[in-house]
Amino acid sequence: MQIPTTAGKRPPESPDLIVGAGSLTSYVWRIEHQQGEYDYRFDLISHSRPGEHSGLQLFAPKDLPDMLAWMNVLIRELLHDGWLNASLRTELRRLLVHLQEIPEVAACDSCEEEEWPEPHRPATP
Question: Between β-strands 45-46 and 37-42, what pairing exists: parallel, antiparallel or unpaired?
């Protein structure tokens, strides 16, 4: 597996999160790019085609529903993790609201902002 980089910094070998939906999985790394400021990098792996887990992965239209569900899960995890800046957090919350309008993607009865858990920001890694 090729590990993503940010500004020449390499994240630890172990991901901070592993999220998935349907046949899709992502490894997510939180990378410190300035003291106290973090960014995320993630990959996207399809398990619907065995043996295609390295290099370029091609997707088909049938993968799109899983991609929407994967986006829903990934956004929720990033919001919960707590390391996003306020502007990106607001943008992702808006995107999540739009995703929730798709019945197949909705993971809760209502996704009003006050129902979202407060972000969990652990001690500096």
Answer: unpaired
